[in-house]
Write a structure and sequence with these properties.
By secondary structure, the protein is mostly helical. It has a single domain, classed as Tetratricopeptide repeat domain (Serine Threonine Protein Phosphatase 5, Tetratricopeptide repeat), CATH 1.25.40. About 65% of the residues lie in helices and about 0% in strands. The protein contains 4 helices and no strands. α1 packs antiparallel against α2, α2 runs antiparallel to α3 and α3 packs antiparallel against α4. It is globular and about 40 Å long. The chain starts with 10 loop residues before the first helix and ends in a 7-residue tail after the last helix.
Length: about 80
């Protein structure tokens, strides 16, 4: 498990490291990594999305659905409203 200490976590770094654990079915490790990243950078939808995939791998469908909804909500918040430059 990684330990993230910076206030802003590099999305690319976390995804690169944690994506390597999913094919090896190390879902617990991936969930822990993404949870740490979320604690430090709660506004990054990528972390919720990938934690959702890891939770699906473990059969945690309710938790996976909640993460997917949060990722979608954050992405919608980040989109500029139509009609604004």
């Amino acid at each position: 498990m990684l330990k993230y200490t910076s206030l802003r976590v590099s999305t690319a770094l976390v995804l690169r490291v944690s994506e390597a654990t999913v094919p090896m079915q190390e879902f617990d490790r991936a969930i822990d990594d993404f949870s740490q990243a979320i604690a430090l950078t709660p506004d990054d939808p990528a972390f919720y999305l990938h934690r959702s995939y890891s939770r699906l791998g473990k059969g945690q469908t309710d938790e996976a659905d909640a993460d997917m909804e949060k990722a979608q909500s954050l992405q919608e918040e980040a989109r500029p409203e139509r009609g604004t430059p």
